[in-house]
Amino acid sequence: MTIKPKIRWRSVFALLGLVGLAIVILVDRHDFTSFWRLLGSLRWYVLLVVVVIKLCNFWVNGLYYRSILRIFSYDVKVKRLFEGALATNFVNYILPSIGLAGAGYLSQVLSPEVPRGKSVLTQIMRYALSALAVLIMMPVGFLLILISRDAGHTIVKVTIYSALGISAFAVCILIIVQQELIARRLAKKLGRLITRIHPKFKTETIQRFVDEFYKGYHAMTSHKRAMLGPFGWSIVYIIIEIIIFYLTFVAFGKFVNPGVAVMAYLFANIASIFGGVFFSTGIFELGMAGTLVALGIPFTLAFSVTAVYRVLNLLIGLPPGFYFYRKYLPSD
User: Fold this and answer.
1) Is 2 among the domain residues?
2) Total tally of structural domains belonging to the chain
3) Separation of CA 40 from chain center
4) Is the alpha carbon torsion for 54, 127, 86, 30 positive or negative?
5) Element (H or E) spanning 305, and its range?
6) Domain span holding position 128
7) Can you say whether residue 98 is alpha, beta or left, with left for phi > 0 and alpha for psi between -120 and 50 degrees?
8) What is the pTM of this model?
9) CA distances (Å), 10 to each of 17, 201, 232, 262, 332, in order?
10) Which one of 110, 122, 162, 208 has the minimum C-beta count within 10 Å?
11) 243: buried, middle or exposed (CB in 10 Å: 19+, 13-18, 0-12)?
């Protein structure tokens, strides 16, 4: 009788996480090198403030999760959601998938109390509400630049096209989610396909996931006023991130037009949304630095601010994110 060795999935996923972290460090090694060269000219006390504010913003992310989970009648402690926010951020960074990897991992963090369908919906709504918050903040940044007469023809066109692009993207997602019958048919076909490849797989698993997903979706649509809470936390999160980015300028002793920081941050996120299918690094930085240069910021300062801001985000978010990622991995 042959005894098949048991696969230690927790160890496998932990190793994959380490490999992903190593790849991130390898890809961003030039930014890390630039970061250390720039430290001599930075104001350390400003960077310490940035670290504290960034960690507080992960807590804000946890408050978002709590507010939307309460609509589903689940009360999860903010501390656990804070840890989940860090772990999800880590997974999204090492696995470029427009945030789908993070959505899947959040369901692991919240299981078994919260069904996976509702957990994934919670994360998807975070992306959707953040996109809506970006649309609201975009006119604010554009107005600040317009008042100072720094707005050029190019930035006007890019702003309009970006707003239209995000709107179209959001409408497509909404249309797909609303087509419940089509989603259920696709789920059945997917279940049959997986069963052919893996006969032991139970198609009821996918059906249960879809059921819980749409239960959560119908709960949100029937409690529209309650959704103002999660939306409010999404706006707070975006505002805090923009403040952190602006403080990076301050760390260099530069006080630029706040509209420049707003637009650079928003365009960087827009670029990462559409480029995040294939790359988790590089697209965000390119969008941010390119916007800063387009708005009249010298290239050296634009590159320096972008590098320091991005590396700070990596140093603050990835190490604790990896720790909590391992903490919530499925047990062997």
Assistant:
1) no
2) 1
3) 31
4) negative
5) helix 299-327
6) 9-26+37-327
7) left
8) 0.73
9) 11, 20, 36, 40, 6
10) 208
11) middle
